[in-house]
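Input chain follows. Return structure tokens only.
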Amino acid sequence: GLVVGGQGSGSGVRGRKPSFTIHNSQFTIHNFLPFLAILLICFEFLAIPYPISKIDTPQFYFDLAQQPGDFTIAELPMNWDRPTPMLYQTVHGKRLLTAYTSRDNPLELAWRTPVLQHWRYLGPDIIDQPLDLIAPTIFYDFNLRYIVLDYYQMPPGPEREATERWVAAALPDTLPIYDDGRLKVYPTPLRREPQPYLSLGQGWSKRQETASGIARAISAATPAELFLHHPSSRPLRLEITAVSAENPPPALTILADGEPLSRIEVTQTPASSAINLPALSPEWVKLSFQADPPTHPITVWRLSLHEE
């Protein structure tokens, strides 16, 4: 009887629901979840080496790091900003002509200065000057020492062809000093005598590419700025090709450092006008273009500078 009762008691014990054990497990998991979430968030923002594989950096950038001095390099292609040049900058530590940003910087000089504009847009802007003549002065002003073409960033196609074409236009007969099949590096030519050149300031519309050519409009809100670099008291002639669809068309008033300089009667068909600039001695002069009346838009097709 004792044996059977003992078995019955044992059977009864084995048949009980282990509520304490299950309750304890649920309590442990429930309270551990916040700590698990915090751990995952910390792991997400953990500063660990990335990527784990070795970064493939061309030898040129290690050689560049050994060169003394503070100067700038231009990384091409630059029709849009890529993050790769900033990665290589951690090796060489030199200045970059352009940098990777999430949005276009409207004040960036590469969008406003000839030669650099050609590399940006892979085509001309409204400033029309001989690239090979003004390039050495522009490179000197930007403290630019090397132009680097990264062929891994521009596979064969229109982008590569246009980049090479406009580099050759600015650097005729210049041979690369480094070529490993991936990078081709050109030195900037020496500036022998400063050449006057133009660059765009504020007040212009975005660059418009049409079947008739490249154009920019003058906004009614503020005058359009045009900077004249290195006039050096030389007699210069500014040529402007402009048009307006208004009837009657407006006039174009031009000022130099805020002082009236000239006035052009704009027509409804594109026409060129020439302005003889006075001898200007500063290193750069700000010219301002204002439509008169300002509510009438004017489109400019070409700006050119010539020495008399």
